[in-house]
Amino acid sequence: MILLQFFLVYFYSYLSLLYFSICCLFHFFFFFQAEDGIRDAQESRGLGDVYKRQVVTGIKFGSYSREESSLALAFKSGGLCLKILPRHAELDTMNEVSGPPAEQDVPLQVPKKTKLYVEQTKREKLHATQMHRTFQRDLCKLRLDTARAYVKIITDGQGPMSYTSGSSIRLSAQVQGLGALFTIKIAVQNTGTKPIYDVNLVATFNHQLYKVERPQISVPVLVSGLQYKYSIDVLCIDEDGSAEPVQVYVCTANSVVPMISAIVNMPLSDIVLDDE
């Protein structure tokens, strides 16, 4: 009886050891075969990208657990790969025919070549060099005329900046008010390196529409880099409230040509009604 109990204990111990060895071997095989191709439910990356060096020995398509569309691959090295097709996959788009759209086959309505078009094309081919030279010459003339006009505007003092007599002045003028009394805000700045002496600000206007008590402002000196601000009051005396531009000039006693000028577009004036 004691011998039988000893035999049973030894037999159960042997079975336990055998089961433990099988489990260890299975885990060892599963762990080291993971790099050779064993994959569980993952997004498909293509068989050719992951298993380039593997030899497939068997393929089975069917259900795996709760997934109906599964593909199992067995490799010669002992690896196992499982591909699961997503449930929300749409396979209808695979039936579409690839290629250009049907609208591309519709012919365009190109007008027929006229006799004038053919003659013009031949003339351009024969005289291509001469036409290009003529275009370049006209383009150079246009650039030269533009540069001359710009220099004349700056020299006459009609631009936003003036470089007359070696000096550089910036002038800006803005009008404020609704009428009949307006105020013109003037800002003068010497952007040069030397001071400018004896400068006059003069406003010219239509005496039938406006009245200015102080149309001339004397500035003793314009120091380089500083901005000087002045104001001129303009009264509209026209009964209909008409408007005309007012010109502001910066002049010196040494030149008859203004150094710089600005044009102020006056707005329409509100009509003042007298009380009866």
Written account of the structure:
- By secondary structure, this protein is an alpha+beta fold.
- The chain has 4 helices and 12 strands, in the order ααβββααβββββββββ.
- It has helices at residues 2-32, 47-50, 115-126, 128-155, and strands at 56-64, 67-75, 80-84, 161-162, 169-176, 181-190, 196-204, 210-211, 216-222, 227-236, 246-252, 260-264.
- The strands form 3 sheets. The protein has a 5-stranded antiparallel beta sheet with strand order 4-5-6-10-8, with no helix packed on it. The chain has a 4-stranded antiparallel beta sheet with strand order 9-7-11-12, with no helix packed on it.
- The termini are far apart.
- 13% of the residues are buried.
In total, the number of strands is 12
Task: Look at the helices and sheets and give the structural class.
Answer: alpha+beta
Strand content: 25-35%
Mean pLDDT: 77
- Number of helical elements: 4
Low-confidence stretches: 24-50
| Cross-sheet strand order for the largest sheet | 4-5-6-10-8
Global shape:
elongated
Question: Any descriptors?
Answer:
single chain; 276 residues; alpha+beta; four-stranded antiparallel sheet; 4 helices; 30% strand; elongated
Topology of this structure?
Blueprint lengths: L1 H31 L14 H4 L5 E9 L2 E9 L4 E5 L30 H12 L1 H28 L5 E2 L6 E8 L4 E10 L5 E9 L5 E2 L4 E7 L4 E10 L9 E7 L7 E5 L12
Antiparallel strand pairs: 1-2, 2-3, 4-5, 5-6, 6-10, 7-9, 7-11, 8-10, 11-12
